[in-house]
Design a protein that fits this description.
By secondary structure, this protein is of the alpha/beta class. The chain contains 17 helices and 19 strands. The protein folds into three domains: about 90 residues, Rossmann fold; about 200 residues, UDP-N-acetylmuramoyl-L-alanine:D-glutamate ligase (3-Layer(aba) Sandwich); about 140 residues, Alpha-Beta Complex (Protein-Tyrosine Phosphatase, Chain A), CATH 3.90.190.20. About 35% of the residues lie in helices and about 20% in strands. It has a six-stranded parallel beta sheet. A six-stranded mixed beta sheet has the order 14-15-19-16-17-18, sandwiched between helices. Strands 3-2-1-4 form a four-stranded parallel beta sheet, sandwiched between helices. The chain is globular and about 70 Å long. The relative contact order is 0.09.
Length: about 450
């Protein structure tokens, strides 16, 4: 275990984005010297570094990183920096420990943390857990893999519980993380452009349970064999399932430890993953002090987050759904499995993943419209399984899908790929889809053929 950084120590921070700024500010406020290495500086980078009172290394060569690490007591890489980056090898060579904001938050704050990881569903479960706690009178805040890094969140003295969305990027850099309760939702290949390999990605996820305190709770999805093989044997465990587990469906009710919390028809949406996400959030919230009344109130008032199997519009009996957040095959399988017959719009920028899995495990897909850089990969993946058409852009894809679909079917944007070939984010991609579906609906009302 590494020693906490104290006044007079020095740290090298890699990256000056949202995370890097929060980390640098926290370190400087405690009298710790900071050098920031930024591979892609902008016109504002130098000004920001000056405001933070840190030393800036702009586009540093490996030699400069080695020199900075030789003076440093810790190395703090930003989430998403590929593990192949030269700074990681330099840190190992110089014997400097790699840490994350989770380590620093543990050093400087002792309020309880509940943590959520998984390939899919982290944000949904995080936000629902926060809402359940808040409606129970517990001052809870979401932090981590969102717009509020945990190291910044601990500055608020009013927060009683931190609900942390724990990405593999943060977990992989953490020496010790000890949440009061931690859930691992699912596991599927992802981020192989960042992690060294699938094993290192799995190890990062599994580390969420590595340092659970005595009395801590591990929450695990029973149907996921990768998750279950890492369940700790010396800590309390709650399992989540549809028909089995300590949190499951009994009759027409969601039940935790055989105590009902709500009926299925009271959920805002009833897909299988909605049920398991709700059970997970409720299990975590109850562990951290939520009341069953607060949990139920949060469920009754909750809404599905945007860009996650989001209903958009019905046009001539065809339902359009936006699942732009689905940037990996595993998420596409979840989405297509929620419907009987789907015209799938998929593609974008492949993250180095094998797309054949989403094709072989999506029997409800009748036809596919491929988009973006990965269109040839999509064609290849669905070859022999579903006819595939390549579209020029999102507008073209929507109109092709509309012509193919029959009333009662679903046109589903669930790309299975990142958005960066054509958009700045999955949000921008989803908003474009929503706007273009609205345009199609107007054209249909006006009598214009797509």
């Amino acid at each position: 275990m590494i020693k906490p950084l104290v006044e007079g120590d020095e740290a090298l921070v890699l990256g000056l984005g949202l995370y890097g700024v929060a980390v640098a500010r926290a370190l400087r406020s405690r009298g710790i010297s900071v050098t920031v290495a930024e591979d892609r500086p902008t016109d504002l980078t130098a000004t920001l570094a000056e405001e933070l009172d840190v030393t800036l290394l702009a586009e540093p060569a490996v030699e400069a990183l080695v020199e900075a690490l030789a003076r440093a007591d810790a190395f703090v890489p930003s989430p998403g920096v590929p593990q192949q980056h030269g700074a990681f090898a330099a840190a190992v060579a110089t014997g400097v420990p790699t840490i994350s904001e989770f380590d620093m938050a543990r050093w400087w704050d002792n309020r309880p943390i509940v943590a959520i990881t998984g390939t899919d569903g982290k944000t949904t479960v995080t936000m629902l857990t926060v809402e359940m706690l808040q409606r129970s009178g517990v001052a809870a805040a979401a932090a981590g893999n969102n717009d509020l890094p945990l190291i910044e969140a601990i500055d608020d003295p009013q927060t009683a519980v931190f609900v942390v969305e724990a990405s593999s990027f943060r977990l992989a850099h953490t020496q010790r993380f000890a949440p009061r309760a931690a859930a691992w939702l699912n596991f599927a290949p992802d981020h192989l452009d960042v992690h060294l390999d699938l094993t290192s990605y799995e190890d990062a996820k599994a580390s969420i349970w590595a340092d659970l305190p005595v009395g801590g709770l591990a929450v695990a999805t029973l149907a996921d064999p990768t998750v279950m093989k890492h369940v700790p044997t010396d800590r309390r465990v709650s399992t989540i399932g549809l028909t089995e587990g300590t949190s499951r469906v009994v009759g027409d009710e969601l039940s935790i430890d055989d105590v009902p919390i709500c009926r299925i028809d009271e959920l805002p949406r009833h897909f299988d993953h909605d049920i398991t996400n709700t059970l997970t959030a409720a299990t975590l919230a109850l562990e951290l002090g939520a009341t069953r009344t607060g949990v139920r109130d949060a469920i009754m008032s909750s809404e599905a987050l945007p860009h996650r199997i989001q209903f958009v519009e019905t046009i001539e009996g065809i339902d359009f759904y936006n699942d732009s957040k689905a940037t990996v095959p595993h998420a596409v399988v979840t989405a297509t499995g929620s419907f009987d017959s789907v015209i799938l719009i998929a593609g974008g920028r492949n993250k180095g993943l094998d797309l054949r899995d989403m094709a072989s495990r999506s029997p409800s897909v009748r036809e596919v419209v491929a988009i973006g850089e990965a269109a040839p990969d999509i064609e290849s993946a669905f070859g022999g399984l579903a006819p595939t058409v390549v579209a020029q852009d999102m507008r073209d894809a929507i109109r092709i899908a509309f012509r193919i679909a029959d009333p009662g079917e679903v046109v589903l944007l669930s790309p299975g790929c990142a958005s960066y070939d054509s958009y700045t984010s999955y949000v921008a991609r989803g908003e474009d889809f929503i706007g273009l579906v609205a345009e199609l609906a107007k054209d249909q009302r006006d009598g214009d053929n797509p």
